Amino acid sequence: MHNDREEPERSSSWSPGRATMILVTGGTRTLGAHVVDQLVARGHAVRALSRKARPERAGGAEWALGDLVTGVGIDAAVAGVGTIIHCASATAKQGTTDAKQATCLIEAARKSGTPRLIYISIVGIDDVPMPYYKRKVLVERLIAGSRLPHTILRATQFHDLPTMLFRSQKRLPAMMVPRARIQPIEVREVAARLVELAENPVDGRAEDIGGPEETTIERLAEQYLAARASASGTGRARRKKIIVVPVPGRVGAAIDEGKLLCPANATGKGTYADYLAR
Predict the structure, then answer these.
(1) What is the pTM of this model?
(2) Domain NAD(P)-binding, which positions (predicted)?
(3) CA-CA distance, 55 to 61, in Å (whole number)?
(4) CA nearest 177: which of 244, 236, 113, 132?
C-alpha cells in the first residue's frame, strides 16, 4: 500500500435500493465496455456515452450519443446522473484532446448538479515524462480542481496494450519491442475496481492497482509468439526474432527505474498467460 498518503475518506456505500444513473464515457472502448457490462450485471442504471451508434452488445444500458470535444450531446448525457466514470481517452496522436474532453465533461457536470466524477489514469505518469502522460497529469489536475466530488484511480498497463504492439508486427520477419519493465493487469479487474469505487467511493486518489507480476515486454512477446505457435500447430511464430530497442532519454531512464510499476499494489490476479489462454 502507499504509505506516503493518508487513507482516502470513504463516502456512503451503495445498496441495490439506491439506484442512481451512472454515466460511462468511452462506453464502447476496451475498458468502458467492461465497466458498462459489470454495472448492468450488478443492477445499476447505466448510461453509456459514445460517438458511435448503439451496438447490439449494449445490453441493458441506456445509450447517449455525444462528443466530448465539440460538446454536442454532453449536457443531455450528463443530465440526471449521480456518478460519471470517465473512461474516454484520446490517443497519443490527438494532442490536447484529453484536456478538452475533461473540461467539457466537468462543465456539463457542474450544470447538472454535483455528480461524482471517477477517472481512470495510469501508474507512473508523474515520473515518466512522455507527452501523453503529461496530458493525463493535466486531466487529473483539472478534475481535482473541478469542485466536484471525485475519485482518481491509477492502473498499470492493460494486457491489451503490448498485444496490440505484437499484432501490428505479425507480417514482419522480426518483432521490435521497447526495453521496458511493466506490470500488466487484466482489464476486467480494472473495470471491477471502478465499479467498486462507484458503489463505495473514496475521495481524491484511490490506491493504485497493478497486475500480479512484474515482467518485461520482451518476455511478453516470447509468451505471445509461443501461444501463436501453439495455436497454429507450427513453430514458425515461436522462431520469430525479437529485437529489444532501448527507450532513449529521461523516459527510458524512468522506465528502467521501475516508475511504471506499483509492486506494493499488485492486487490483480490475471496473468498475461491467462489472457492469452482465453
Answers:
(1) 0.90
(2) 26-180
(3) 11
(4) 244
Residue 95 gets the label, from left (phi > 0), alpha (psi -120 to 50) or beta, of left
Only one residue has cell 516508475, namely 259
End-to-end CA distance of the chain: 30
Cell matching residue 20 = 442512481
Check residue 100 and give left, alpha or beta (phi > 0: left; psi -120 to 50: alpha).
alpha
Residue 62, CA distances (Å) to 50, 66, 204 in order: 11, 13, 28
Return left, alpha or beta for 236; rule: phi > 0 is left, psi -120 to 50 is alpha, else beta: alpha
Q: Spell out the domains of the chain, with CATH numbers in brackets.
A: 21-157+187-205 (3.40.50.720)
Q: Average of pLDDT values for 25-32?
A: 92
Residue pointed to by grid coordinates 475498458: 31
Pairing of strands 181-182, 215-216: antiparallel
pLDDT at site 33: 93
